[in-house]
């Protein structure tokens, strides 16, 4: 709903611009690459309820907008400031996500008796083997990193199961059984998710059976779903 409202608002602004209404204001403040980043960051922050890397995109957009429009931050090196803030944010994520990360680093990289994913990959990642007879989905955050989830020995829980993904300059790979019914419902900006898990049985989908739905945002990143 939020993305739909944002798209309608952008279309209305374009319509006003085409009719010559508020052209100076729109050209000076709205139709700029900095505002695109601010819009993406704002949508991401709202979508993740303030718990996600949308603040990074929002910061970059605001930094360059204020610098170019109001000549602020003169004499400040952007990349030094950017990476300093990135390290701070990465540390905060690691602190507040330490329980989920500890569960995902068991011996041999195998997660047993865990029915959900709660994974954070910041400047890194790894391989996770998930064994579950009642997999219910979960959430995954990737910032300049990624992870591979091997679930060939897992079974989906009844009904609809969701994986909430937010990938910014990062991605993921899901290796799943070929008979899983998977739907992709993500918003992709300069990125995307490919589904290649149905190689031999492309049309065999059980109606009303277990279903895995992947939703969220992929920004300058991507994902892949496949089976062996």
Give a brief outline of the structure.
The chain has helices at residues 2-18, 23-30, 33-47, 54-70, 78-96, 98-103, and strands at residues 110-112, 116-122, 125-131, 137-143, 146-150, 160-168, 171-175, 182-189, 192-196, 211-219, 222-226. It has 228 residues and is of the alpha/beta class.
Describe the structure.
- With 228 residues, this protein is an alpha/beta fold.
- The protein folds into two domains: 2-95, no CATH class; 98-226, no CATH class.
- Helix content is 36%, strand content 31%.
- It has helices spanning 2-18, 23-30, 33-47, 54-70, 78-96, 98-103; strands at residues 110-112, 116-122, 125-131, 137-143, 146-150, 160-168, 171-175, 182-189, 192-196, 211-219, 222-226.
- It has a six-stranded parallel beta sheet, with no helix packed on it. Strands 2-4-6-10-8 form a five-stranded parallel beta sheet, with helices on one face.
- α3 (33-47) packs antiparallel against α4 (54-70).
- The model is unreliable at 98-108 (pLDDT under 50).
Write the layout of secondary structure elements.
Elements: H1 2-18, H2 23-30, H3 33-47, H4 54-70, H5 78-96, H6 98-103, E1 110-112, E2 116-122, E3 125-131, E4 137-143, E5 146-150, E6 160-168, E7 171-175, E8 182-189, E9 192-196, E10 211-219, E11 222-226
Parallel strand pairs: 1-3, 2-4, 3-5, 4-6, 5-7, 6-10, 7-11, 8-10, 9-11
Spans of 5+ residues with little confidence (pLDDT < 50)? 98-108
Succession of helices and strands: HHHHHHEEEEEEEEEEE
Helix content: 25-40%
- How many strand segments? 11
Query: How many separate structural domains?
Result: 2
Class from helix and strand fractions: alpha/beta
Shape: globular
In terms of DSSP E residues, the strand content is: 25-35%
Number of helices: 6
Nearest-angstrom radius of gyration? Answer: 20 Å
């Amino acid at each position: 709903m939020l993305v739909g409202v944002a798209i309608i608002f952008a279309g209305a602004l374009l319509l006003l611009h085409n009719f010559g209404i508020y052209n100076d204001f729109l050209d000076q403040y709205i139709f700029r690459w900095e505002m695109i980043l601010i819009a993406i960051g704002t949508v991401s922050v709202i979508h993740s309820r303030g718990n996600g890397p949308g603040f990074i995109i929002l910061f970059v957009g605001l930094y360059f907008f204020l610098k170019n429009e109001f000549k602020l931050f003169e004499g400040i090196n952007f990349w030094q400031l950017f990476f300093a803030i990135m390290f701070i944010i990465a540390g905060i994520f690691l602190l507040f996500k330490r329980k989920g990360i500890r569960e995902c680093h068991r011996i041999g990289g195998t997660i047993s008796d865990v029915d959900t994913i709660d994974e954070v990959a910041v400047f890194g990642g790894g391989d996770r083997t998930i064994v579950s007879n009642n997999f219910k989905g979960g959430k995954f955050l990737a910032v300049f990193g990624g992870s591979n989830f091997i679930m060939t020995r897992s079974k989906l829980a009844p009904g609809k199961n969701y994986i909430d993904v937010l990938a910014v300059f990062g991605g993921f790979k899901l290796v799943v059984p070929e008979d899983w019914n998977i739907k992709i419902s993500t918003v992709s900006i300069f990125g995307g998710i490919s589904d290649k898990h149905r190689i031999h049985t492309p049309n065999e989908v059980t109606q009303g059976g277990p279903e895995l739905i992947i939703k969220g945002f992929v920004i300058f990143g991507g994902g892949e779903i496949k089976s062996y």
